[in-house]
Amino acid sequence: MSEIKTVGIVGAGLMGTGIAEVCALAGLRTILIRATGGDPAAAVARVEKSLDTRVAKGKLDAAAAEAALAQLSATTDLAAAAECDLVIESIVEDLATKRALFASLAPHLRSHAILASNTSTLKISDLAEGSHDQRTIGLHFFSPVPAMNLVEVAHLPTTDPDALAAAEAFVATLGKTAVPVLDSTGFIVNRLLVPMLTGAIAAYEQGLAPAEHVDTAMRLGCGHPLGPLALADLIGLDVVYAMSKLLYKEFGDDRFRPPALLRRLVQNGHVGKKAGLGLYDYAVKPPRANTAALVVDEASAAA
């Protein structure tokens, strides 16, 4: 089985730096590659800030944080992928953009290297084109990466068994649980999660119950740590909307159809907790339902 000693992560956003953090903490040489240019030191600073926060909360030993940072470097040069046993793409969730990146990475990859995508909804078969097909997989991490233990490992019927075994061993090295899944739009979690999120948003929009009541019912009735409306805000309504549209296009099932309320919020830039406003208003403590979002004017209705 191929041994993964050096990992490259292309994309230095929230997910990319989170993946880099757990790889470095696991003692793996980790190279962060900024896909959009800019100062690569800023990506390392984000990881350092996250580690410092965990140390301050007593969740991580200071020596472990220091050792992790020693394993981490950052660059804007895709050629750094030539040093890696595993390269994980974690850029914008857009098929054309990801395919262009894969094409740019291909000339730099060593024959034994595994190429992985952190996509949450796109098919790996749509990304795996070219000479590296049999060693291209999905490694779907969940946010926040340091705290979430699941990694969906998506594979094709033609995936090299060595690549799949190496990927599962890599996930175990990170202290996480790998769940292999045959390649499909949305894999397991999002295929089951998105209908719950869109159903909750539609129920709220239709006046079934106030937002807080919808969330309380699901927390207490189903044992969920977070209600579906609060969870949608945490994920990002723009992300939920994109997943919903993609799954609806793929399966044609009304369970995946984006509710009008979701579409309006995203169009207005009210995409959830990261924007301070979504289904809830985070400008107040504790957050309260954004009931203004339910008011539909004629222009919005026609959009």
Strand arrangement in the largest pleated sheet: 3-2-1-4-5-6-7-8
- Report the span from N to C terminus: 54 Å
CATH class of the largest domain: Alpha Beta
Query: What letter string, H or E per element, gives the SSE order?
Result: EHEHHEEHEHEEHEHHHHHEEH
Largest sheet: 8 strands, mixed
Number of domains: 2
Tertiary shape? globular
Keywords, please?
globular, 303 residues, disordered C terminus, two-stranded antiparallel ribbon, alpha/beta, N-(1-d-carboxylethyl)-l-norvaline Dehydrogenase, domain 2, 2 domains, 44% helix, eight-stranded mixed β-sheet
Structure, explained:
The protein has 303 residues and is of the alpha/beta class. The chain folds into two domains: 6-182, Rossmann fold (3-Layer(aba) Sandwich), CATH 3.40.50; 189-293, N-(1-d-carboxylethyl)-l-norvaline Dehydrogenase, domain 2 (Orthogonal Bundle), CATH 1.10.1040.50. Helix content is 44%, strand content 15%. Helix 5 (124-127) links the parallel strand 5 (114-117) and strand 6 (136-141). The model is unreliable at 297-303 (pLDDT under 50).
